[in-house]
């Protein structure tokens, strides 16, 4: 490999047990990611499509090897590491602490490198540089995550007015960074760091975790970072058997459900093929709001699961019809998380196409958002779905903003059929074709009454010919 003038910010050189330098690039040892998902840098075309809000600002902290050119939070990383060293009483203890963390990184280094899929950003990183990057970035990431989960600044070792970890700091910036595509630390690294004394002591002191199930952001941070560390502290095996590559990969898998990470397994059913051929664009006749569907006599029911993995089904029960929808939670981070999922899906799709594996059916998030956006056009639509428990919001202002939030998330996808999975397109056709006329409903009621009359007559005749014996 030709020599390059590029040098990374992380430069401590370590030596192995035989005294030889470990400062050797490992570009040739990077293998395919075995964990699934993979950490990939977001393509410029995707960022341009998402607009200004989809980009990582200069003030957002960087994690991992990507997006480091204009980083402004390096001082925060250094300070987060210094807080860990402060727990050591003397220089010998600090050296031992450093070696403990380096040893931990050696255990997971191969999996961590594999998670980045051999990206060229790793080519000029030596073993020691890569480990030190994982330590500094990982410790900073975890301290920010614990702050988001409610751990106080004091417990982390900072003052209440600290510029990063202070009480009055807006946590939205940190969450945007944690869920940004490519701005990720492999979970195998974060879980290994959470086993160290500094973080274990925080977990022991924090006896009550306020993590509402409706807060998806906190739920993901708690389930993926805190729970495995608590299990480790109790010498239990981790509850989750699923190996996720990074935080965003886990969020995407959670929202789509097992086995549907990138490939949709939808079948056309027995509908008219002409309906599919007519789907060059999303016809206006195939879009319905919740209010319009209610006027057609369609009722709404909540399915058991959340997000895209919840079953969206339409059932015609003759007397009435039901549309089953998963719950949609609205909070401070709704737009942020769904935008990140959409960006992640677009990035993975482009990666698959570039690898020559064909066009993957990775538009489940975009298709779902478009469908929900069509259902919720006004606040009246929100109220219709809220009554059935489908829309959940602790703050009334969130419900007012939901139509605008969905419209922003959908953006330019709305009129492009390629962003609509086949099953949802077929569902739209069923909704369009459903129209139970009043005389049809009357005919069904008349048939039921006729059947009840026959049953009543049968039992009356049976009672006449077989009277009940009187008690003696």
What would you note in describing this structure?
The chain is mostly helical and 472 residues long. It has 2 domains: 27-256, no CATH class; 273-433, no CATH class. It is 49% helix and 5% strand. It has 18 helices and 4 strands. The chain has helices spanning 44-50, 74-86, 91-115, 127-148, 153-156, 172-178, 187-193, 197-205, 216-233, 247-256, 273-277, 290-295, 334-354, 364-375, 379-386, 396-410, 422-433, 438-465; strands spanning 298-306, 313-316, 321-329, 391-392. Strands 1, 2, 3 and 4 form a 4-stranded mixed β-sheet that branches. α3 (91-115) crosses α4 (127-148). The model is unreliable at 1-36 and 259-282 (pLDDT under 50). Keywords: Membrane, Transmembrane, Transmembrane helix. Residues 1-38 are annotated as: Disordered. The chain crosses the membrane at residues 444-465.
């Amino acid at each position: 490999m030709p020599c390059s003038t590029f040098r990374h910010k992380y430069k401590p050189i370590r030596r192995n047990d035989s005294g030889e330098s470990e400062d050797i690039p490992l570009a040739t040892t990077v293998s395919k990611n075995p964990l699934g998902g993979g950490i990939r840098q977001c393509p410029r075309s995707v960022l341009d499509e998402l607009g200004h809000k989809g980009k990582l600002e200069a003030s957002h902290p960087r994690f991992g090897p990507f997006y480091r050119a204009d980083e402004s939070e390096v001082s925060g990383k250094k300070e987060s590491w210094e807080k860990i060293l402060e727990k050591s009483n003397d220089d010998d203890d600090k050296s031992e602490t450093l070696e403990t963390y380096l040893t931990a990184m050696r255990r997971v280094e191969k999996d961590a490198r594999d998670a980045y899929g051999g990206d060229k950003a790793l080519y000029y990183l030596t073993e020691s540089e890569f480990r030190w990057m994982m330590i500094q970035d990982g410790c900073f990431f975890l301290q920010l995550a614990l702050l988001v989960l409610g751990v106080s600044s004091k417990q982390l070792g900072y003052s209440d007015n600290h510029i990063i970890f202070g009480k009055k700091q807006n946590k939205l910036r940190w969450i945007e960074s944690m869920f940004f595509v490519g701005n990720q630390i492999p979970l195998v690294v974060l879980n290994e760091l959470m086993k160290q004394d500094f973080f274990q002591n925080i977990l022991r002191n924090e006896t009550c975790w306020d993590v509402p199930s409706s807060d998806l952001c906190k739920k993901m941070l708690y389930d993926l970072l805190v729970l495995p560390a608590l299990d480790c502290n109790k010498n239990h095996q981790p509850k989750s058997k699923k190996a996720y590559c990074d935080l965003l990969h886990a969020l995407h898998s959670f929202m789509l459900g097992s086995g549907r990470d990138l490939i949709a397994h939808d079948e056309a059913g027995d509908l008219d093929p002409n309906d599919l051929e007519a789907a060059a664009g999303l016809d206006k006749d195939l879009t319905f709001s919740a209010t319009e569907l209610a006027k057609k006599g369609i009722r709404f029911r909540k399915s058991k699961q959340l997000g895209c993995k919840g079953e969206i089904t339409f059932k015609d029960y003759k007397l009435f019809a039901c549309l089953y929808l998963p719950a949609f939670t609205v909070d401070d981070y709704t737009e942020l998380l769904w935008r990140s999922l959409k960006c992640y899906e677009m990035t993975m799709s482009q990666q698959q196409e570039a690898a020559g594996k064909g066009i993957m059916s990775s538009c489940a998030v975009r298709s779902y958002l478009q469908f929900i956006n069509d259902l919720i056009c006004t606040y009246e639509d929100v109220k219709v779905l809220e009554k059935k428990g489908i829309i959940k919001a602790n703050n009334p202002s969130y419900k007012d903003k939901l139509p605008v939030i969905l419209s922003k998330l959908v953006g330019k996808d709305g009129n492009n059929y390629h962003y609509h999975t086949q099953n949802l397109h077929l569902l739209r056709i069923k909704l369009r074709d459903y129209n139970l006329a009043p005389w049809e409903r009357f005919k069904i009621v008349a048939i039921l009454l006729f059947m009840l009359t026959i049953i009543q007559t049968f039992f009356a005749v049976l009672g006449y010919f077989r009277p009940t014996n009187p008690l003696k």
